Amino acid sequence: MKRWVGLMAIGTMVFMLAACGSGGKDDNSTTTTDTQTETSTDTQTATDDPAPAEVDDQLTPEEGASLVVWDSKTGREFIDEMAKQFETEYGVTVKVEEVESPDQVNKLTTDGPAGLGADLVNFPNDQLGRAVSAGLVLENDQFADETTTESQENAVKAVSYEGILYGYPRTVETYAMIYNKAIFPEGAPKSFEDIVTFAKTYNDAKKNKYAIMWEIGNFYFNYGFLGSNGGYLFGDGGTKADDIGLNNDGAVAGAKFFGSLKDILPMNTGDVTYDIKKGLFTGGTLGIDINGPWTLADYKASGIDYGVAPLPTIEGKPMTSFSGVKAWYVNSFTKYPKAAKLFANFLTSKEAELKEFQLNGTLPANKEAINDASIQGDAVSKAFLDQFAVSQPMPSIPEMGNVWNPAAAALSEVWNDGKDAKAALDNAVQQIKDANAVNTK
User: Fold this and answer.
1) DSSP string over 397-431
2) No. of H helices and E strands in the chain?
3) Which of 14, 66, 101, 269 has the fewest Cβ atoms surrounding its Cβ within 10 A?
4) Highest mean pLDDT: which of 55-59, 308-312, 355-359?
5) Is residue 308 within 8 Å of residue 180, measured between CB atoms?
6) Cα 5 vs. chain centroid, distance in angstroms?
7) Cα–Cα distance for residue pair 52/49, rounded to 1 Å
8) Domain made up of 66-173+324-393: CATH architecture
């Protein structure tokens, strides 16, 4: 920050000297850099309002541009195909490096300034505030109008921060019930009460038979127990960091209900992982897996006959899942911002997002893609979209990063140790407040 302020001061002095040398007249000069989108601005006198920046009508890649993209292993087939198409159309080579989406902001924090980060990254919207505050991503300026018009409104909001659009929405996602049709031939249960009743006659730990599983140590999947009963993360729609509702009466009631479900899933939180659930479900002994569309490719490949339904109700109330928007972002330290912005826009077209839907079962953010018959006529996609309608987007403020570990630990204590729900949540909220206070100093 000190270095940036110093550079700004030097730049201001140089500008003032140049203005004096030219008699204070407008020179209509154009300034370009390797790390910014080319713009043209008229030099203004001290009494004039600054002219708005103008962008090229048609963006073209920098000469000799090549790109590095970070993406998860599950998205590899899609991104490799799109990279080939982009190179054919624009002559820009694209190298793909496998970095899981949730890890990318942490990695970019060190690799970006060092010149080692990917030109194009993607991560969930809850990490956007942290990325912006650290100066890691560029604004979506060149394609802002196109992105806003073509993407779902809530997706655009999710990838904006303090009123500025940064992301290129890739997918919207939430989780739902993925159920084995052989075990539930009449369709998935409607309520947790129905599941508890079913589990009493179906469960058999020796045969690895369980009615339902989810990642019980992961707050991403557990939030619905608190949110469905009136708990919340931050006030004012997830923007007010000093208003935390994770230990109000509704949240406490939800945590108690959550803990009671150990009767039908007698494992500790660390014993249920993604891979364990996948093995049991594809093996035909797990009735319901609470999971997202990102797992469907594996289930399709296994040949299991599955269906998808919205989450079960809790005491008659819809279970409020977390929802997120994954988007592409341009690394602010890239040498090729034009090429990177072009590729980000290329990856979020109707055709591209339908391609990813076909390969990975992901739900597109592009409105034309959503309205395509291939998605509207697909019962699985419709179920996820129905759940998305009652979901809550993850807050994007930086303080969201302080929530995950304390909240997960609190619910793990309730589940594993039978700790009082109120005491566990009070402790978690205090830890979140303490972390927030440190970050604001």
Assistant:
1) SGGGGGTHHHHHHHHHHHHHH---HHHHHHHHHHH
2) 19, 15
3) 14
4) 308-312
5) no
6) 32
7) 9
8) 3-Layer(aba) Sandwich (3.40)
Closest-CA residue to 164 (of 190, 193, 129) = 129
CA distances to 58, 81, 142, 169, 268 from 147, rounded to whole Å, are 15, 22, 10, 8, 44
**Structural tokens at position 421:** 């729900």
250 Cβ contact partners less than 8 Å away, ≥ 6 residues apart: 226, 229, 230, 231
- Distance, C-alpha 283 to centroid of its chain: 30
**Structure token digits, residue 139:** 């604004």
Of 155, 156, 117, which is closest to residue 136 (Cα–Cα)?
Answer: 117
* All structural domains of the chain with their residue ranges: 66-173+324-393, 176-323+395-440
Close Cβ partners of 231 (under 8 Å, ≥ 6 residues apart): 245, 246, 247, 248, 250, 251, 252, 254
8 A C-beta contact, residue 313 and residue 102: no
d(CA 282, CA 216): 19
Bridge pairing between strands 392-393 and 322-330:
parallel
Say yes or no: do domains 66-173+324-393 and 176-323+395-440 share a fold: yes
What pLDDT is stored for residue 57 in this prediction?
Answer: 53
Domain 176-323+395-440 maps to which CATH number in 3.40.190.10, 3.40.50.300, 3.30.465.10, 3.40.630.40?
Answer: 3.40.190.10
**How far is residue 306's CA from residue 179's CA, in Å, rounded to a whole number?**
5
Q: Distance between CA atoms of 392 and 5, rounded to whole angstroms? A: 39
Predicted TM-score (pTM) of this structure: 0.71
pLDDT band, residue 385 (cuts 50/70/90): confident
Report the b/e string of 85-98 with b at 16+ CB within 10 A.
ebeeebebebebee
Report the pLDDT averaged over residues 64-80: 94
166 token code pair: 């940064």
- Find tokens 């962008």 and name the residue: 55
